[in-house]
Amino acid sequence: MHAPAEPILDEAIVDEVIARYPDATGDVLSMLEELQHRHPHRYLPRPTLEQVARKTGLSRSQIYSVVTFYSFFNLKPQGRHTIAVCRGTACHTRGSRGLLESLANRLGIPPAEREQATFTSPGREVTIRTVACFGQCALAPVVAADEEIHGHMTDLKLRALADHVLTAEARP
Amino acid sequence: MKLLDLDSLSDIRKIGMGKLLPGKPRIGVGLGTCGIGNGAQAVFAALERAIGAAGLDAMLVPVGCFGFCAAEPLVSVHLPGRPLVLLDRVRPEEAPDIVAAIAAHTIPESRALCRIEDWDHFTSQTHFGRGFPQIPLWRDIPFFHGQKKIVLRNCGLINPSDIEEYIAIGGYHAFYHALQKPNPLEIIEEVKRSKLRGRGGAGYPTGTKWALLQKAEADIKYVICNADEGDPGAYMNRNEIESDPHMLLEGMLIGAFATGATEGIVYLRAEYPLAVERLRRAVDEARALGLIGANILGTRFCFEMKLVEGAGAFVCGEETAMIASLEGRAGRPRPRPPFPAQRGLWGKPTNINNVETWCNIPVIIARGGAWFAEIGTSNSSGTKVFSLVGKIKNTGLVEMPLGSPLKRIVYDIGGGAPSGKRVKAVQTGGPSGGCIPASLFDTPVDYEALAGIGAIMGSGGMVVMDEDNCMVDVARYFVEFTHAESCGKCIPCRVDLDQALRMLNRITAGQATDQDLVDLEELSQMIKECSLCGLGQTAPNPVLTTLRHFRHEYEEHLRAKRCRAGICEQMFLSPCENSCPLHMRIPWFLQLLKEGRLEDAAELVWLDNPLPASTGRICQHPCENQCRRAGVDDAVNMREVHRYISDVVLEGDMLDGVLARLLARKLPATGRRVAVVGAGPSGLAAAFYLALFGHAVTVYESREEAGGMLRYALPEYRLPKAMLAKEIRAIERLGVAFEFNRTLGSNLSLDALAADVDAVFLAIGTWKGHAAGITGEDAPGVWHAIGFLEQVVRAKPPEMGRAVVVVGGGNAAIDSARTCLRLGCEVTIVYRRDRRDMPAISAEVDDALREGARLELFYTPLRVVREADGRVAGLECLRTKPGDYDASGRRTPVSTNEKVIFPCNSIIMAVGERPDAAPLRQSAIQVRENDTAAADYVTYQTNRPKVYAGGDLVTGASNVSSTMATGKAAAAAIDRQLMHQDRMSALLGTFEIAPELSVDPPGGPRNESAHLPADARRGSFAEVAAGFTPDQAIAECVRCLRCDVKETCAAHAAGGHRA
What band does A138 get if pLDDT is binned at 50, 70 and 90? Predict the structure, then answer.
């Protein structure tokens, strides 16, 4: 499958966001969080990061260090939908690893990519990510599809959910 | 409006009271994240509509979470002057009924969980009212009983987004009074007096920490709230902020004033959007009232507050890493000293406390430190909120005084594991904590006691594990987590956790060596001692505690390549196969039968299980406990399917064909000779495999026929002997020789045998009754179950009289009881524990009751009552009641001092069968205290070279499939010893199986075999269960979810199937 082109974030938008954080050193996380949020594919492309470095005077190495350290930041474009599988302890004891596996299978994620913390389906319909814990342990195992919590997940329910997301995407 | 003094605070309090007790019905819906996850939002909307439709004058408010997550959505209803009533598991469609009841000045009592008449907020008291006596008080609900809600004092009762309600219950009053103190040091003294310790996990005394900040001199000082609740399995901080954000703000304000800080930061997980939203709103509300900002409450105290969202790094819970993160850098910790109180955020003195620590402060100031110190233990004062999750019935947030024993929390409040399984361990403290085995549940939960057993309090996460959890996998899971979250700054944590993870991966994949275990332990110790920060120093705790308390599980993975819990998937085909003692490849024979390949299915069934028709009738079917289909409707009835396959073969004309296939698989003759002593299921299984390996096998049996307990103790109505005889004949035709009437120790010498052959397998079973220790049992009229059953099988039933008492709860007890019923007796079964503790197959117990047996639980036999002429007149028992929980999670019977006599004419003792160990001792075979033979649990080798032992002789009385499994394993070990290679898997071979999978669960409801009606069974030994019809068998196969198909991308794409 051919990956769609990657739109970059308009420089004016980046400038506008930077301007709202006068204390660039202390607020760099919040600034980057907002920039990522503004990107239609919820990620931070390299030109954006370079612009931040240029405009704030922060070193490129510090910015790169930050965006690679925190799991919140994405350096790759994200899918149009997100399915987050909780990998908290309660969910683990109730079988969340198997759910993650079967979801990856369902969406055709090559095994090599599954080592990453997040992975995106080849057509960018959906990104699967793991979450350390939603704090929804009473509903374990828990999966969030586009931020809506689905509790007491089973393999079968999850497959249906993934199919639902994929078919919703396939519609014109 | 800015609050300037106590009067203006009191004005707000009155407004707030008007909302809490509005003089009209007030309905609260628990809208915490977990409530919302359970559909509370829809309930709220439905109630809103229903109130509108009914034109009811009532107040509907969102409240926080009352902590009982398993009962969400929770709705509270308060009618003026009546108690507050909690409704649990409310569904939107119930809204009209609820509203209609309220309109009629009552509440839907049948939907009520509990009532609250008075509530102590600790900053004030609320009197709701009296009434509804039939609804239990909240404290009488097991989940709440013993809880002390100090931190959760307002959660679920007030609207978290309304500062007026918080002020109404006395909120910000402690802060006001603190501000009036001429010397802020008094506040610190009060906190010191409370002995409050940090609730983030390490337990450092809060007052001491504050004093350090207070002493530090600087132009600016910070107080920080650590709300980066990163421990997976812990969510109390989220709930505290979502349900009552102002208590956190008030705590921080008091702390800031006491220490001279002027800026506060809450570092909150971005994964908690609702907590972020509510806290942000709370800060805005407080600022609007002048509780945050300049010249607060008309004083010179100024304080600014900021909320920072963490970007997802566990290590940022470490205080120096958090500071780095707040300074816009990667969150890597640095060595201490200097401590944050000396050089913290931006180099300024800083104090960091956990959410819950701050939340305790307003109560300590309101009620006094001495009052607080009285709660809990002398070293660990106050309460702690625990998130009780995992394999537990009542999940939720539990606030207990510190020092409460773990078992109170797990069993009394949590209700134990759901679905009747046994709790194995509790994991406390997240990735930094440890696993506590059930045998240590007496441990009081305080900082020191937990540390003493290798665990930690941590943030209060308690994840309960049951027998389906693999402790090696748990350790692997946590190391995977800490490995991924290691910041990479120091080598012990970065490199050695990686190595530890590799070792654990090898162990869970069944590829590790003994050396890996030694290395893992050494490495863990090293990481603990050498890492820079708390993350690395505590990361090995899950490994070290599981090694300490669950070493046998590691060893089983290493040596037997077995994950008993069925988690480490690389070691098994499917959950059913893994739980089957014989490791029958169940999904395969189901699929083969479904495809109409009956002969293939039969070949596979026999290869895996040499007595498939017998086990198909009487096996305990542990496979069903693990069947994933049970999550859809009911487990697949696998046992009946292999009974069906073998019945068709044995009763039809297919046996020759199947035997021909088995003979074709038989390996060439080796010239080795093996003797098997005992022709019970274990000996037969061993002989079967040894013969297929090509060895010359002779089975020596003391009785006149083969079959052991199956032949001589199993009643005909469960296992027709004709069927068993056909199975044994099949084994004989594969080349096994039998010599009957040969008894070890009399006309068979182990020493001579061992000298003559290449290996001996001993499987002489547990035929000896063992005294139960009750007065008068060694006289006529009292039978041991096995002896009694054998006489009946030999068609010489003893004279039992009219009434029989059977003592015991195992299969032998139930078999004896049902046999007596068939002999026309009245039967009472006496068992010392609860019904669910009976080891017998549950369906058999049901059948016994259906056939007319009486079951008397919680009785311990004391003495046989006899007539003057010596005849049995009854059994005197001590009545007991369930006492405290023992190490197995079962409640130990304790005496009630009440004695009861069950009148009867004879008594069957179905307890304590033992092997006859005398001949073993004579031949210097090591024997354990209970007369069982000591043998390795993987190879079944005894202390004597060439001599192996298995079956009940080694395990004590067990069940048919477990005992056969030891024979199968011993055969593999003997062959390995003789041939110097592992030939079992080659012998068992593989089958071409189509990898069918469907998204929807295939097939219909579970099929059951037809049973003789209960009234037709009296006096008849005809077989009770008829077995499947062909249609039923196929329909049952279709229900399999095919867990054996390890779905992979490639398989998906190519439609291929597993090798």
Answer: confident
Q: What average pLDDT does the segment A117-138 reach?
A: 82
Nearest-CB residue to B325 (from A29, A62, A104): A29
- Tokens 């003692």 map to which residue? B581
Separation between Cα atoms, residue B264 and residue B1020, nearest integer Å: 82
Asked if A149 contacts A139 with a C-beta cutoff of 8 angstroms, the reply is: yes
The answer, for A156 touching chain B at a CB cutoff of 8 Å, is yes
Helix axes B471-485, B497-508, angle to 10 degrees: 150
- Domain ranges for chain A, please list them: 11-69, 81-170
What's residue A6's pLDDT?
A: 65
Would you identify the CATH topology of the domain B572-665+992-1059? Answer: Fumarate Reductase Iron-sulfur Protein; Chain B, domain 2 (1.10.1060)
Q: What is the pLDDT of residue B119?
A: 97
Flag whether pLDDT at A1 surpasses 70: no
pLDDT tens, residue by residue, A27-36: 899 899 999 9
d(CA B172, CA B253): 9
CATH fold for domain B782-909: FAD/NAD(P)-binding domain (3.50.50)
- Cα separation, A132 vs B313, in Å, equals 10
Q: Which backbone phi and psi does B471 adopt, to 5 degrees?
A: -70, -25
Q: How far is A78 from chain B (nearest CA, A)?
A: 17
Contact list, B487 vs chain A (CB under 8 Å): 69
pTM of the predicted protein model:
0.90
Domain B383-569 has what CATH class?
A: mainly alpha
Cβ proximity of A130 and A91 under 8 Å = no
Q: Is A29 on the interface with B (CB under 8 A)?
A: yes
Superfamily of domain B172-373: NADH-ubiquinone oxidoreductase 51kDa subunit (3.40.50.11540)
Determine, for residues B232 and A151 on separate chains, whether the beta-carbon distance falls below 8 Å.
no
Is B673 in contact with B633 (CB distance < 8 Å)? no
Identify the closest residue of chain B to A154 by CA–CA distance. Answer: B631
Residues of chain B with pLDDT under 50: 1049-1059
Element (H, E) at B530: helix B514-530
Is there a contact between B311 and A139 if contact means CB atoms under 8 Å apart? no
Q: Are B21 and B126 in contact (CB under 8 A)?
A: yes
Residue B831: enclosing H or E segment and its boundaries? strand B826-831
Q: Which CATH number fits domain B6-147: 3.40.50.720, 1.20.272.10, 3.40.30.10, 3.40.980.10?
A: 3.40.30.10
Element (H, E) at B827: strand B826-831
Contact between B658 and B610 (Cβ < 8 Å): no
pLDDT of amino acid A13: 93
Q: What is the pLDDT of residue B1056?
A: 34
CA proximity to A70, closest of B312, B213, B921 = B312
| Mean pLDDT of chain A, nearest integer | 85
Note whether B1054 contacts A: Cβ–Cβ < 8 A.
no
Chain A residues within 8 A of B464 when measuring between CB atoms: 93
Residues in CB range of B11: below 8 A, 6 or more apart: none
Domain A81-170: top CATH class = alpha beta
Domain boundaries, chain B: 6-147, 172-373, 383-569, 572-665+992-1059, 667-768+914-991, 782-909
Contacts of B387 in chain A (CB under 8 A): 137
User: Closest-CA residue in chain A for B235?
Assistant: A135
Please, is B540 exposed, middle or buried when counting C-beta atoms within 10 Å of its C-beta (0-12, 13-18, 19+)? buried
Spatial separation of the C-alpha atoms in residues B157 and B217, rounded to whole Å: 41
Q: Measured between alpha carbons, how far is A171 from A168 in angstroms, rounded to an integer?
A: 6
pLDDT number for residue A23? 86
Same fold, B383-569 and B667-768+914-991: no
